[in-house]
Amino acid sequence: MRTIELTYPHILSEDCLPETVAAIGFFDGIHKGHQEVIHTAIVKAKEKNMESAVITFHPHPSVVLNKHKKNVKYITPIRQKQEILQKMNVDRLYIIKFNKELSSLSPQQFVDHFIIGLRIKHVVAGFDFTFGHKGSGNMENISKYTRKSFTYTTVSKVESDEEKISSTRIRHLLARGDVAQVNQLLGRPLSLYGTVLSGAKRGRKLGFPTANLKVDEDILLPKPGIYAVRVLFKNRIYEGMASLGTNPTFPEDEFRLSLEVHIFDYNQDIYGEELLLEWYAYIRDEEKFPSVEALINQLEDDEKTIRAYFQSYKS
């Protein structure tokens, strides 16, 4: 997959671009609804003997349009978005920088520049996709802007349990810690990359050595608690338990959010290494224990619970 980053105005010449079928949207999470849009574009591209493309935007429009919002946290940051689209066999990815200039374009200007100007011959988008200044362009009025240069397909909403699958729904589930339901809506485990940092090494003293993970600030994390996780490291998969929180049993950590992972049956030095962490199930809230012994007893119970969870998950 070829990734092309664009700003307005871009300087790509139509002469060097292939005719393309493109899925367009922000696609945070690339959940099952997004996948339906992207898969439709891939199928259409094969039918038309063209390349498939995805057009997405960065940063999230709310960062530009809401003067009080400095940043936003993503279900799938750009790196993971690229990896997922690569696995879906998308031929090219256009990442358009969302800024004030882009937000000011009329629907026709947007279409002329980023659809017709990129030699896109068929557009696929969800029913609620909007474009142009204040979202005045949409999939109901897009025919006004095509200049007879491209056709389009509108994908209806995709539901689970009679409710629309959406990034907003996933965000609400993450706020509750319901990563199992999130995984159902994504069609894959929620995941993130983290680099192992040297920590207080307290877990080792407790009999539960942990990898203290540094993650990018723009990653949307679930609510604090204890989770069943899997760790992918050097082409191997390990089961484990993750603690996301402030370690309230230890006052010196009380206001510092940390993500620590105890990897089952693994005790090698991996400082500085990058891990891929997959979230599977919420086990319990984080707690402040009256003693270190009480904490150790709970951790032992957590490990038994999580090992049993993965044993049943396999079968």
Can you describe this structure in just a few lines?
Residues 185-311 form the Riboflavin kinase domain. 29% of the residues lie in helices and 29% in strands. The radius of gyration is 22 Å and the shape is elongated.
Please give the domain count: 2
Under the CATH scheme, which class of the largest domain? Alpha Beta
Classify the beta-strand content into a percent band.
25-35%
Distance between the termini: 35 Å
Helical fraction equals 25-40%
Give the class from helix and strand content and strand pairing.
alpha/beta
Give the overall shape: elongated
| CATH homologous superfamily assignment of the largest domain | HUPs
Measured on Cα atoms, how large is the radius of gyration?
Answer: 22 Å
**CATH topology assignment of the largest domain:** Rossmann fold
CATH architecture of the largest domain: 3-Layer(aba) Sandwich
Secondary-structure element sequence? EEHEHHEHHEEEEEEHHEHEEEEEH
Give the strand tally.
Answer: 16
Residue runs with pLDDT of under 50 for 5 or more positions = none
Q: Please tally the helical runs, counting DSSP H or I stretches of 4 or more residues.
A: 9
Mean of pLDDT: 93
Q: Give the biggest beta sheet.
A: 6 strands, parallel
What does this structure look like?
The mean pLDDT is 93. 29% of the residues lie in helices and 29% in strands. A six-stranded parallel β-sheet has the order 1-4-3-2-5-8, with helices on one face. A six-stranded antiparallel β-barrel has the order 11-12-15-14-13-16. The chain has two domains: 162 residues, HUPs (Rossmann fold); 126 residues, Beta Barrel (Elongation Factor Tu (Ef-tu), domain 3), CATH 2.40.30. It is built from nine helices and 16 strands. With 315 residues, the protein is of the alpha/beta class. Helix 1 links the parallel strand 2 and strand 3. Its EC number is 2.7.1.26, 2.7.7.2. This is Riboflavin biosynthesis protein. GO terms for molecular function: ATP binding; FMN adenylyltransferase activity; riboflavin kinase activity. Keywords: ATP-binding, FAD, Flavoprotein, FMN, Kinase, Multifunctional enzyme, Nucleotide-binding, Nucleotidyltransferase, Transferase. It catalyses: FMN + ATP + H(+) = FAD + diphosphate; riboflavin + ATP = FMN + ADP + H(+).
